[in-house]
Design a protein that fits this description.
The complex is a heterodimer of chains A (163) and B (422). By secondary structure, chain A is mainly alpha-helical. Chain A folds into 2 domains: 44 residues; 105 residues, Cytochrome c-like domain (Cytochrome Bc1 Complex, Chain D, domain 2, Orthogonal Bundle). Chain A has 9 helices and 2 strands, in the order αααααααββαα. In chain A, strands 1-2 form a two-stranded antiparallel ribbon. In chain A, a hairpin with a 2-residue loop joins strand 1 and strand 2. In chain A, helix 4 packs across helix 8 and helix 8 crosses helix 9. About 5% of the residues of chain A have low confidence. About 4% of the residues of chain B have low confidence. Chain B folds into 2 domains: 30 residues; 383 residues, 6 Propeller (Neuraminidase), CATH 2.120.10. In chain B, the strands form 8 sheets. In chain B, strands 10-11-12-13-17 form a 5-stranded mixed sheet, with no helix packed on it. The chains are: A mainly alpha (163), B mainly beta (422). Chains A and B meet through helix 2, helix 4 and helix 5 of A and helix 1 of B.
Chain lengths: 163, 422
């Protein structure tokens, strides 16, 4: 019943005025576009943005390391896992002194308490898994993603922290 | 000119009506009624409590009061009591200065567990703890290394309590969760964790040595319950994490997002479910050798371990199990199992899964059909990309005296009540 109504309104319109017909066609198209645009933003807005991002930019070297070694526990948006793995969004561990941060990646971390919350999943030591440049890249990525903004970590700083 | 004016007005109207029309449709998700939950026909849900804290397991008294165990204390209290007053609940003074998971009522006592001990409190004839300061320590000194430290428990009909001691490891690697690290030979964790211990339900200050090492090879069990029809213990195991992260040469990310199975086991004394040497692959329907112990995703173990009675997709984290004994729900639910799935975290880059309550039909104490999602929508979003974004995560289950089902949530501390009406 509904499609027939639409058909009559938009296609078999008795209105002879050509302009009016056009207006109805435009109105119909606007509704359709409205649906598409709104639905794109309504569901998964972050994904839409991510998609736009990947179209325009190559992945950063640190992002590639992050996706291989960090993403499961710390999540794509850096938000971590409640009670298990801490968030990497803001916080003095991530944005503060670089040497202790590098040491966490090198040596791992267990049962850390941040703001009275203890995180129970251990972080493995990645010192023997990752090269100094990879650690510098991934920490630079983390310090400048998820809304974070902090200075880059250099390969030399990682090499120094290993000593 | 007149036409142009009309044209622009109509466009404006079109945009507004188009947007509004869509908005209305998008709000007509099946989650609108019933406290945001999607339920089978005839069921409804309401929220009976909110913002309680990290509510793990819950227990309901004969009088309809609800006890809730908090994962970590709130204002110094780890146990909350909601007193029932004609269907409305009033939060009473909390007690118990420890966080934990287990909460059950048994033989006139409220039992509660911290991450190392099991305590009990005498209930009076109104189902209330009269003397919260007078906790009796039933079991003490169980291992807590942080990882998998929930000491969930249940009871049989012969005076025993069964306590989970989770393995403080993902897969008993030399270096826990380190890529490529191999398994520790003869996994030493299993001597004091990774299994179920049986103790006397009414004996004080029991330690490992006073108990029976009832079952082993269970990585971590948060939901467990005695099945009265089968007179046996049923447990839900949390399967291992991160196959792809740790052994990418054998598992791609997609496979790793569904393997291994989260398993329901029927446990008899002396059973071994095989962790960390094997996992159960619900697609091949086989026990597969863990990569830490020489597996490659296909090799099977030489030795046979206990098979699950039901297998679910990986990582969904079953946190409570309840056999429905009420008369309120339709016949098919009688004696069947409800399972609260807390929801996954290690499925990236795939969306997370779980965050719902599942039903498994049972006949004569065995699963008698496929599992189905019973209550969904706890996360408050259709696609959960990271667990921290979920609004609620189901964690505990309890049955009310009138046969309704309570579901607790440890994110916002919400308790949902699900009821049925013809």
């Amino acid at each position: 019943m509904f499609p027939t109504m639409l058909k009559e309104r938009y296609l078999k319109s008795p209105i002879k005025n050509n302009w009016m017909k056009k207006i109805f066609v435009v109105e119909f198209l606007m509704i359709v576009f409205g649906f598409i645009i709104v639905s794109a933003f309504k569901y998964r807005p972050s994904e839409t943005r991510e998609l736009a991002y990947t179209f325009h930019q190559q992945k950063k070297p640190g992002e590639i390391v992050y996706e291989k070694y960090c993403i499961s526990c710390h999540q794509a948006d850096g938000s971590g896992v409640p009670n298990m793995s801490p968030s990497l969004v803001e916080g003095s561990f991530v944005l503060g002194d670089k040497k202790p941060l590098v040491k966490i990646v090198l040596n791992g971390l267990k049962n850390v308490t941040i703001n009275d919350k203890t995180y129970n999943n251990p972080m493995p030591a990645l010192g023997s898994v990752l090269k100094d440049k990879q650690i510098a890249d991934v920490l630079t990525y983390v310090r400048n993603s998820f809304g974070n903004k902090a200075s880059a970590v250099t390969t030399a700083e990682v090499t120094e922290a290993r000593k | 000119m007149k036409n142009k004016f009309l044209f622009s007005v109509l466009i404006g109207v079109a945009i507004v009506t188009g947007t509004l029309a869509f908005k209305n449709i998008s709000q007509q998700t099946p989650f609108n009624d019933h406290a945001g939950l999607a339920l089978p026909a005839g069921f409804s849900a309401s929220i009976v409590a909110n913002n309680l804290g990290e509510v793990r397991h819950i227990a309901v008294t004969k009088e309809g009061g609800i006890y809730a165990k908090l994962g970590s204390t709130k204002n110094g209290k780890g146990i909350l009591f909601l007193k029932s007053n004609n269907g409305k609940f009033q939060e009473q003074n909390g007690f118990g200065d420890y966080g934990g998971t287990g909460m059950r009522i048994h033989n006139g006592y409220l039992y509660a567990s911290s991450n190392t001990d099991v305590y009990r409190y005498k209930l009076n004839d109104k189902g209330e703890v009269e003397n919260p300061a007078k906790a009796e320590t039933i079991v003490t000194g169980l291992l807590d290394h942080g990882e998998h430290n929930s000491k969930s428990f249940t009871f049989d009909n012969d005076g025993n309590i069964y306590v989970n001691v989770g393995a403080y490891s993902n897969s008993c690697q030399v270096q826990d969760r380190a890529p490529g690290s191999m398994g520790r030979p003869g996994c030493p964790i299993l001597d004091s964790a990774g299994g179920i211990w049986q103790f006397k339900a009414d004996k004080m200050d029991q330690h490992y040595g006073d108990g029976v090492h009832y079952a082993t090879g269970l990585r971590n069990v948060v939901g467990l319950e005695w099945n009265q029809k089968d007179n046996a213990l049923f447990v839900m195991q949390h399967g291992r994490d991160q196959l792809h992260d740790l052994f990418p040469q054998y598992y791609d990310a997609k496979t790793s997002s569904i393997l291994p199975a989260e398993c329901m086991y029927e446990i008899r004394k002396g059973d071994n479910a095989g962790w960390p040497y094997i996992y159960y692959d619900q697609i091949q329907k086989k026990q597969i050798l863990m990569p830490e112990y020489g597996g490659d995703g296909k090799k099977m173990a030489d030795k046979k371990y206990l098979n699950p009675v039901m297998a679910f997709p990986g990582h969904m984290a079953p946190n409570d199990l309840l056999f429905y004994t009420g008369n309120q729900f339709p016949e098919k639910y009688k004696n069947g199992a409800f399972i609260a799935f807390h929801g996954s975290w290690n499925r990236s880059p795939e969306p997370q899964a779980g965050y719902f309550v599942v039903f498994v039909p049972f006949k004569d104490g065995k699963p008698s059909g496929k599992w189905e999602i019973f209550a969904n929508g706890f996360a408050g979003q259709k696609v959960v990309m990271s667990p921290g974004k979920a609004e609620h995560r189901p964690c505990g289950l309890a049955q009310s005296p009138d046969g309704s089902l309570y579901v607790s949530d440890d994110v916002k501390g919400t308790i949902f009540k699900i009821s049925y009406k013809k």
